Amino acid sequence: MGPHPAAAQVRAAVRRDLRDLGDRRDPRVLVAVSGGPDSLALLAATCFVGPRMGVAVGAVTVDHGLQPGSMQRARAVAGAARRLGAYPVSTWHVTVEGGGGPEARARRARYEAFHVAARAARADAVLLAHTRDDQAETVLLGLARGSGTRSLAGMPARAGLVRRPLLALSRHVVGLAAEAAVDELQLAPWDDPHNADPTFARPRVRHRVLPVLETELGPGISAALARTADLLRDDAEALDGWSAREAAHLVRHGPESGLDVDAVGVSDLPRAVRTRVLRRAALDAGAPASDLTAGHVSAMDALVTGATDGAVADLPRVSVVRVGGVLRVVPSDPR
Fold first, then answer.
1. For residue 214, which phi and psi values (nearest 5 degrees)?
2. What share of the chain is helix, strand, coil (3-state, %, to 5)?
3. How far apart are alpha carbons 39 and 203 in whole angstroms?
């Protein structure tokens, strides 16, 4: 007998994602495994598909230390990965700290661990198990925050080392694949209680908002939101490319530290391109991406479109001052 139809779909998605690695020397990927059904389905599929394509498969699991028994659970997940033939398998115990909300802090610590693990294993990619439903939730969260095109474009299928091969599959299909793999894994999927905790925004979207939308507007909302993300990502990439070309001749190193932006030249650009140039200048001068808001970029834009000489905007770790026809963007915090 062949695999369960859902498992076959997950394997096919992984196979498509790994196809470009065939030309590399000793290609290797790591699967990020939390112990939830989606990541276990991805782990099982990748351990099946990878070796048949000449791609070595390892695994990484992250213990955030936020719940009782998390260390033991991480060990159990690592053991399941080893039984499937994954190598190397690493467990990272991280400290969740820093700015932003608890979800953002945990995500930042997790992704840092993924990148460190990938370097240690000399992996070409880290595979994450986000599904189409995760994408829909991300779009709705972006809408609620009043975010721009880049945020509403959701999660990319690829970003640097990170790949999301299951982004076109529903959580239902991936869950069925996980159920089919339970015997092979010798580990039942773990339901993270945080995924049902209404104090977090994403579980509220998952368990309250999306079901209401499905009831009131009809089925297929998650798929429609994911398609919207795909379309907006095309727009965002085009605008990012345009702004990068403009920044190449409108932004230059300042006389000391920081950057100088040609305010006159930038003012002639459409706002969608102009604000991207300004945001990139702020980031390059030292503003942390996690703290730089649309309001901060609007304050920079006001210096371009309506400010007098000497006007100042204070951004996280960066100060911006209008000096004649130039915006001088300089670090304000040595940290």
1. -60, -40
2. 55, 15, 30
3. 18
| Predicted pLDDT of residue 333 | 60
Cα–Cα distance for residue pair 255/330, rounded to 1 Å: 11
Looking at 3.30.465.60, 3.30.450.40, 3.10.180.10, 2.40.170.20, the CATH number of the domain 254-331 comes to 3.30.465.60
Given this chain, do its domains 5-217 and 254-331 carry the same CATH topology?
A: no
* Confidence (pLDDT) at 308: 79
pLDDT beyond 80 at 229? yes
Burial class of residue 119, CB neighbours in 10 A (0-12, 13-18, 19+): exposed
pLDDT digits (tens, 9 = 90+) for 29-54: 999 998 889 999 999 999 999 999 99
Question: 134 Cβ partners below 8 Å, 6+ apart?
Answer: 155, 167, 171
- Determine the angle formed by the axes of helices 132-145 and 171-185, rounding to 10 degrees: 130
| Tokens representing residue 140 in the block | 């709705």
CB 89 within 8 A of CB 82: yes
94-142 confidence digits (pLDDT tens) = 666 665 566 777 788 888 889 999 999 999 999 999 999 999 999 998 8
Rg (CA), the chain: 22
User: What superfamily would CATH give domain 5-217?
Assistant: HUPs (3.40.50.620)
Write down the pTM of the prediction: 0.83
